[in-house]
Amino acid sequence: MVDAMFDTKIAVLLRDDLASWQALNVTAFLVSGLPQELRGEPYVDADDVTYLSMFRQPVVVLQGDKALLTKAHDRALTRNQPMSIFTADLFSTGNDADNRAAVRKVHTQDLDLVGIAVHGQKNAVDKILKGARMHP
After folding, report:
1. pLDDT of residue 5
2. How confident is the model at residue 1 (pLDDT cuts 50, 70, 90)?
3. Which domains, from first to last, does the chain contain?
4. Contact 9, 60 (CB under 8 A)
């Protein structure tokens, strides 16, 4: 397995009832919230064209039902694990300010989570996401 080379893990957990376009959109937004220091150096091709840097390690994309997503969120909070979140409300907003406002108005236990992303020690991330399965 590829992630055996790393002590840490980048993982995204998506709710299993999302349409394909939603799963892709949520994944992109969630990983954009991960720390800059997870990125490697920029890529350069043989013609010296420079491309943006990417994560230095693979991203595992998992899925689970709403209850599992809530449980994983609770586990991450209990362990003080930083995470990015995406709620169902964000599908109806159109910019960063409105996204943040939509999250701000909802109490933690009432967030309608459709995805979370975490980065941390492999064993800690695995415990947070216990019960999740690979996204097809």
Report:
1. 81
2. very low
3. 2-134 (3.40.1490.10)
4. yes
Q: Using the CB atoms, write b or e for 51-87: b if 16+ within 10 Å.
A: eeeeeebebbbbbbeeebbbbbbebbeeeebebbbbb
Q: Which amino acid is at 65?
A: D
Question: Tokens at residue 22, please?
Answer: 């939603």
Pairing of strands 8-15, 59-64: parallel
CB 3 within 8 A of CB 60: yes
Query: Model-level pTM greater than 0.85?
Result: yes
For residue 104, with 0-12 CB atoms within 10 Å meaning exposed, 13-18 middle and 19 or more buried, which class applies?
Answer: exposed
- Chain mean pLDDT for the chain: 94
* Strands 83-87 vs 113-121: parallel, antiparallel or unpaired: antiparallel
72-121: per-residue pLDDT in tens? 999 999 999 999 999 999 999 989 999 999 999 999 999 999 999 999 99
